[in-house]
Every structure is written in structure tokens, then in C-alpha cells.
Amino acid sequence: MRIKFIITILLFLLAPGLLLAAPASQGNGQAKSQEPIQIEADRMLSTQKDNSVFFSGRVVAKQGGLTIHSDELTVYYASQAQPGAEQANANTTKEIERMFAKGNVKITQKDWVATGETAEYFDVQRKVVIIGNAKVWQDNNMVTGDRFVLFLDEGKSIVEHDNKKGKRVKAFFYPKQKTGPAK
To answer: Are 34 and 62 in contact (CB under 8 A)?
Structure first.
């Protein structure tokens, strides 16, 4: 329990900029979350030289209604310190630049689920890329491909398959069942 608390505090201090879920207006048209990020894992390794925090073993990352499950998760952050400023300065802020999840990746939010071999989140572009046997479900509907790109602020997605292998994108859409008495 203590390690969960330490990880939550560490990420709150290192990465207040991870903004995946629970939109709140930022005045520039982009939706960003002000909710804290909670990551649980069997192990954590922070590397100041690489500006990264690596989590492994049954990783679960949550922010608002968004949950990411994976075997490994690396959080890369960028220092916002002014050039020439001392890195030890307590006023230096760290913001998430990107996150990379690997192994048994499963992302859930509200009524949709996405799975794949890897997933990468890019904060500036507000984009998620899921690669390797990517599948996305919403209700009973499903889309499959090798690569799934989701643009969070645009409500747009792109699904691609490796044409060299002769595979194609597949989509399965089911009409909603009408409820009520039959006429």
C-alpha cells in the first residue's frame, strides 16, 4: 500500500501533464484532464538521465475514466526548466511528453475497449497509437487492424493493416436491437 502512495505522489510531482481523460477546457480548444494519475505495478525504476519512469509487472494506470493495463509502461517526461536553470530547483515542473505501454495492452474508457501489443500516447498531439493485432470494441461493434490511431481532440481514428501480408482492415457493426413490444 505504501508503494502505491509513493508512486502516486511521485507521478503527481513528475508528471502533472498526462492528460488522457475527463476533459476540462484549457482555453486553447484542447481538452485536458486535471485529474491525478495513479499507476500500480510490481516494480518501478526512475531514470533521471532519460527523464523516464519505467513500470513493470501487472501495470495498471488510471486517470478519470481511462484505464491502461499492460506488462510494462514507460512514462517519458520533459523538464520545463528555463535554459541555464539549476535542475535541482524545486520550481522545475515535469510534464508528460509521451507514454509507451508494451505487452498485453488493454485500454478501457466508458463503453469502448482497445487491445494490442503496444500502445503509445503523445501528449502534444493528443494522439494514441496502438500497434500489433489492434482491436477496438464499442458495445458489440469491433474493428481490427495492425495499427490503430486515435486523435483524442478530433474524435477521429485511422485503422490500417499491413498490405504486404495481404491482410485488410475488418469492421463488424451490429444494428441496435429495438426494445419494446413487437407490432
So the answer is: no
